[in-house]
Amino acid sequence: MKDQLTRRLVAEAIGTGFLLAAVVGSGIMGAKLCGGNLGLALLTNTLATGAILMVLILVFGAISGAHLNPAVSLAFAVQHEISWRDCFAYIGAQLIGAILGTWAAHLMFDLPVWQISTTVRTGPAQWFSEAIATFGLLTTIFGCLARMPQATAYAVGLYIAAAYWFTASTSFANPAVTIARSLSNTFAGIAPSCVFGFVAAQLVGMAGAVALASYLWPPALAETPVSDLRKSAIAPANLLVD
Questions:
Q1: Whole-prediction pTM value?
Q2: What homologous superfamily does CATH list for 2-229?
Q3: Listed residue (74, 180, 203, 212) closest to 131, CA to CA
């Protein structure tokens, strides 16, 4: 049992690390190549993030559920899909992976590893955007798991790609991502003073999505039992797989 948990935690750490390497690295590359065109830089950042999310969920879903996000792990703990012990272990692995992934991006672009962002992202509109972004992400996950689990990886990647553009905050929707991006003074950065507001808003959005999912997709209405989902050929994203 301990070996199984360790394997899951390694998958969560590596997966979240690659996610942040893609988010931060593509932001750096976009800023370097787009000649100051922020819209084009954001587009390149969006495409890389959406694409890597699909890949990571497909690769690591069968091992850990590919949460890659403390808000997702907390949501599944609230729904009793994973234990609280495993939830907090996942969050620790995600945070470690996120920070290491950010530092890896700096190294790949020959930048100082240790950085603190100076990009201010704060205010009611930004916080509301993060709550909406996280609410939509979790609702996407819950809805797919209830009706079409094999599509979850693609739906999550596409949702985040869309939310980059329809939210004022560019849809961080992930506390580990938010914390790690505060350690990068690059295109993707967020000032440490702004982290608390973003994370608080993300948790509010997560709570709203859990409440909605309990109403729209109660376990009795799911087309496939959870035990069967765990055994599926393409494991559903963000669901613990033994």
A1: 0.90
A2: Glycerol uptake facilitator protein. (1.20.1080.10)
A3: 203
